[in-house]
Structure formats: structure tokens, C-alpha cells
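Hello,

Following up on my earlier ticket. Below are the two sequence lines again, exactly as submitted.
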Amino acid sequence: MSDDSNLLSVKDLSIDFLQEKTAVRAVDQVSFDVKKGEVLGIVGESGSGKSVTVTSILKLLPENARYTEGSISFKSEELLSMKEKQLRKLRGNEISMIFQDPMTSLNPVFTVENQLVEAIRLHAKLSRKKARQEAIRLLQIVGIQEPEKRIKLYPHEFSGGMRQRVMIAMAISSSPSLLIADEPTTALDVTVQKQIIDLLKELQQKINTSIIFITHDLEVVADLADRLLIMYGGQIVESGPAKTIFANPLHPYTRLLIEAIPHGNKKSGRLPTIEGNVPSLSEIPQDVCRFKERIPWIPDQAHEINPKLREVEPEHFVRCTCYKHFWMKEAHEKK
Amino acid sequence: METTEKTPSLVKMFLKKMLQNKLACFGLLMIFLIVVLAIFAPLIATHQPNVMDTGATLLGPGQDGHLLGTDNYGRDLFSRIVYGSRISLIVGLGAVAVGSVIGILLGLVAGYFGGWLDSIIMRFMDALAAFPFILLAITLMTVLGTGLINVIIAVGIGNVPGFARMIRGQVLSVKEELFIEVTNSLGAKQARIIFIHILPNCLTPIIVYATMNVAGAIISEAALSFLGLGIQAPTASWGNILKEGKDYLIVAPHIAIFSGMFILLSVLGLNLFGDGLRDALDPKTRA
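Thanks for your patience. The regenerated structure is below:
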């Protein structure tokens, strides 16, 4: 794999949040690459560091966040040492972002037209009139009917799904080479969720952009992502091509996530769940397998001390050796 | 395909709410009357406001063709009050304009950037607000000298801390909104974010506060003029008519009563209108 094919390359990225006296690590030694035209899915529960990881790419983290180590390079340029001014040229232009909550991601005092035209004109020297035509074209692309009429409306006159479509239109207005979608479907109901994912898939093929898609729902990325990162407690616990991971999930966390996907044909009983909660960042155990607490049936000696990602088959990485003992779950459940 | 809800336009909703509110309509009527008085003063006034007539001093209302009587120099009171409305309105609007522009700028900067800049600006505002307003205005008037512009500046500066605090509070909540992060992620400059995205979202309470403050500024001008620091004779302002009237409370109470009543009605009108405005603009009471 040559470095040239990588659009984005994150290496050993660690991010700390400074609290009153202590620093809390939200992202720990995360490395991944995004190739041109590729869809990377990042999966994990809330608090696993996935949003922080991607927000850090645009350097939009809150003020108390510190990039402790690592590097983020985009098109072979280092982002972490970039000046605000250069970054602004990338934001919304080369790298765009779609956020989780479409209900609050549009400015309530301006019409959709206003905001779309603004987004377009921030990076393209177009007259207001030309930008408006472009805005209507974008609305058409994202599947909003009667865009000439709808463009004059205010965000509160749109439904959640339509607002997310407008957000997507804003994000793709400059044909970015990288689109970051931070749980874009979480706040939407299931049918709309499907529509938005189909739309992203279609757009990805149309404008050939790379997408980083974040979700806590493995099912959502199942047929969208080319590669997957599974994150837990600020670390990557498993990564590899999506097909490989679905065919042969290894880390207990991945397997439990896959088990938790509801199947329409399975009628019996309750949905499987993962015991316990994601520990808060300051309580996360260091130097041991972070998922240990939630898989109590795996004996302590099965875990590694200070586990590292290990390549178990080509391009398929797993952290810790505990995955070899996942079979013990059945015995645990029978008890 | 999702559907769009059809909601009536915000302007229509706002107008409907305002018209339903009788008190607000009354307030608006008062404001309207005073604005008409001020604009068409030369047409409405029956006499020259500053022409003395020593043969007709302290006439009662209605006497000798003087609608509201005359003052101690024999000047027509009605005409003086009509011309005085100009001063009151100019000071009221001017002082609020000065106070709001400075206050909004300081509040935006303090709220958006935070940190030490915020501390410095807001502690300075606290200090300014801690001064009794009249004392502050007297100090300023002494330094600046009397005159219309200086009254506006003095009253305006007294208004700054209120605006700054209010807008800072608004900015603190608006800047955490997701759409600000979205705008940031689109690559907008900070000035653009502050003035085009944050400011309009802070305006609603500011409009209400400004309306109420016009009333406050009118009273402040009257108070300063009453103390002899504001508009100087012979120019008529409601405050200095009141001041002159106080010396003749026994023999000619109409001078103080009528000038006082105009102050009262304009302030009442502005406050009622401001209340109605708040009710109509407050999203929490929006149906």
C-alpha cells in the first residue's frame, strides 16, 4: 500500500481533555487511513471516542482538548501544524462534516436558501444569483422535491429528514474529497434513516468522495462501509475490511455488537445486550484490556497486559488475546 | 418522502399576537401620537414655543387661546410640550442607539471569546453599573458640558452595561448551538460567525429591552434637565418645563401637571408596547 493512495492518514493520535486538575484521555493511539473514494465506518458506543476522533480532523474540538501526540495528514499535508487560516480553506471545502442532530444544525433565523447560498459562497466565487441556482440544483440532488419553492422556507418548516438532506446539500456543496458523517441518522426514524443512507451511498458514487461514517449501529454501515474501525474506550479494538469483519468478527465487543443487531425472522425472546456500561473516561482501566469489565466470563489470564493491535489475517487487526476465549460465553449464559 | 409542515409566517403570527394584546395596542397608539407630535411639531404647535409674552404669564388652560395655558414667561405651554417631544424622542432613541451599539459590541466580544477578555470587559461593565445612574450622568455632564449631544452620550453610556450583560448571556448559549459548529465546519470566519450567525439569534430579547430602555432614557433626560444639567433653557424639553413648573406648583399647577403627564404617557406607552413585544416574540409563549 503506497502512501499516495491515502487521502487521510491518522497516526498514533491521542487526545486529552483537560479537566480542572487532571487530563482525561478521550482518544488513545488511534491510527487509520482513508483511501480515495473509500467509505470508512467507525463503530462504537457513546463515549468510545469516535466523535472526538473525527472532530479532531477538522480541529473543531472544544478549547480544553489537547492533541497530545500523533499526526493527521490530509493529502500529505499535516493538519495539526496548520494555521487557522489554512484550516478554514479546508473546512467545508476539502473536508465537510454532517452532524448528528439535524433539528439544531441549521440556523433558525435564516431561510434554507440563505444558508445554502452562504455555504456555497464561502468557497466559490459565485454571484448570489448563480449560487442560488447551484443551491436549487443541490437540493434536487439530495432529493428535495420542488426545490424552487422549498428553498424559501425556514428550517422549522422542514422535517428532520429534510433538514438532514439540507445539511448534506451544504456539506457536498463544494464537492469535498472527504465527507465526515457523525451519526447522521441517529436522530432520525428508521425509514428516513434508510433513505439518508441510500442517499449517501448514491452521492458517494456520484461525486466519488471518501466518507467517514460514524455510528453506534453496526447494521447501518453493513452495506455502506468498505472498511470498519470498532472503537471502545478511546481505542481501536478491531479494524479491517467490512466484509471480513462481518464474516469473521473476532473481538468480543464486535461480536456482541453483531449479536445485538435485531433479526426480523428471529421471533424468540429478548434482544441480546452487552452487560454493563461504557466506563466514563476518567475511570477507564489503563494498561489492560479495556473491555474486560464487560465480559466477566473470560478469565483474567486470557487478557493481555497492555494489549496491542495485532494483525490476525491480512488487514484484519484485533486488540488483546481475549477474543480467543469468546466461546466461554455460552457456558456463562447457561449458568 | 417526508412532508413539509405548513406553518403561518412568523411575521403574521407576530402581528396577530400584537393585535390581540389591547394594552400593547394602546402603548403603540401612545408612541404613534408622540412621534406624530415630534415630526409635525411646527404644524401642530399653536404658538412659537420660545416667544415670551409678559402680559400673559401663568394663564390657566384654555385661557386666551392657550390650549394648556402659559408658563411664567407667558410662553404657550402646549407648543412648548409639542416641541419638547422632539427632544424627548431624540434623546430616548439616541441614547438607546449609543448604549445598544456599544453594549452589543462589548457583549458579543466578551461572550464569544471568553477568558480574560470577557473578565476585563464584564468587570468594567459591573463597575459602570455599580455607579448610581444619576451620579454617573451628573459626572459625565459635568465633564462633557450640557447640550443635546452630551445628554445623549451620558444617558447612552449609562445604558451600556445592561445591553452588554444581556447580549453576553445570549451569546454564551447561542455559541454552543450545533449550527454554530456547523458554520465553523463549513469554514466561515469568526467575524462572520459572530455578526451573521450569533447576533441575529440574540436580537429578540434585545429588541424588547431596547424598547423599555427608550422609556428609561426619556425619564433620564427629564431628570437631568430637571436638575439643570440637561437641555438648557430656552429650548423646551419635558424635563425643564417640569423644572420650571415646580416653582409655580401652587399658583399654576398645570405647568408641572401637563409636562409630567406627557412624560408619564410616553413612558407608559413604551413599556406597555415593550411588554406586548416580549409576549409576542417569546418563543416559549408561541403557540
